[in-house]
Amino acid sequence: MRRSSFVLIVSFITACGGGSSSEGGGGDTESSATTAEGGGGATTGGEEAGDDGPADNEFQLNHGSADAGEARGERPSEIEATETEAAMRLFVVNGEDVPIPGVVIKMTAPNGNHYFTQPTDSHGYAEVLVPISTRYEMEYLSLGRRNTTATVEVPDGPRRDVRLTLRYRQWRPPAPPEDEPGFRLDGVNFETSSARIDRGSYPRLDRVVEYLEHKPDARIRVSGHTDNVGNPRANQRLSEQRAQAVREYLVSKGIAGDRIEAVGYGDTQPLASNDSDEGRARNRRIEAIEL
């Protein structure tokens, strides 16, 4: 049976939008992918989702590649396109075309359904089946920023194979945990002078759960921090209790406890001066870092 195959190369620049290039011959079927600000490798911090990029950042998904269905990583492919699902075959590379392992790509349909790759292998390869005739938001899973790095439209038609090369131009290997700043989990709040998590924090923590669910080999350290108001010993104890409360929440969602460390640093690692309300608010925080 005839297969329809597509190839797309999407270029991203860490934390500042992206550029574009295309590959493949012309044909009578086209889709597109659009970059959004906030793209980048797993080292990106921050919390804000990107907005759709400008019109001149649109990439063309061109019909005509003969080898998209043959794309594979370390092992033979485990998926096959069907009458109603396209086989998405993704390669994640840096600016020198060196494969980046350990990246999970999430594709979200307009109806809210999510589709995840497994972590990319040593070839930077991962794959996933998604319904056809749908436009998807694509992001890589991160403890920090929610990165909607691109959108891609999968056309209608049976047995579609779509090959995507995602290029992170400014990606760098992660530093050792002791040298790498943690991701501030903005939106994670507690009742005043308490380790009781505010219910409004749950959606942000659920993104950490999602990250750990789809990166089964990942371990993280959760750290609590306070401002310098009050007794230092009490602040130290409160920071430990808050980090432990976050750990307990993640465990309650099915994450193994031995994958999560919880530590408190009290007021010893400020991000800003404690001389203003704004600075103290910045210093009261929860951070997470992958070990």
Give an overview of the whole structure.
The chain has 291 residues and is of the alpha+beta class. It has 2 domains: 4-168, Immunoglobulin-like (Sandwich); 183-290, OmpA-like domain (60s Ribosomal Protein L30, Chain: A). Helices cover 14% and strands 30% of the residues. The chain is built from 3 helices and 14 strands. The strands form 2 sheets. Strands 6-5-8-9-2-3-1-10-4-7 form a 10-stranded mixed beta sheet, with no helix packed on it. Strands 11-14-12-13 form a 4-stranded mixed beta sheet. The longest helix is centred in the last third of the chain and has 21 residues, at 232-252. It starts with a strand and ends with a strand. Residues 1-8 and 10-66 have low confidence and may be disordered.
Number of helices: 3
What is the mean predicted local confidence, pLDDT? 77
Strand content: 25-35%
**Strand runs, count:** 14
Please list the strands of the largest sheet in the order they lie side by side.
Answer: 6-5-8-9-2-3-1-10-4-7
- Coarse morphology: elongated
Structural class by helix and strand composition: alpha+beta
Largest sheet data:
10 strands, mixed
Order of helices and strands: EEEEEEEEEEEHEHEHE
Ends distance: 47 Å
Core attributes:
alpha+beta; 30% strand; 3 helices; disordered N terminus; elongated; 2 domains; 14 strands; 60s Ribosomal Protein L30, Chain: A; 10-stranded mixed sheet; 291 residues; Immunoglobulin-like
Secondary-structure topology with pairs:
Blueprint: E1 4-12, E2 30-35, E3 58-63, E4 85-94, E5 105-108, E6 114-116, E7 125-131, E8 134-140, E9 147-154, E10 160-168, E11 183-184, H1 202-214, E12 220-225, H2 232-252, E13 260-264, H3 277-283, E14 285-290
Parallel strand pairs: 1-10, 4-10, 12-13
Antiparallel strand pairs: 1-3, 2-3, 2-9, 4-7, 5-6, 5-8, 8-9, 11-14, 12-14
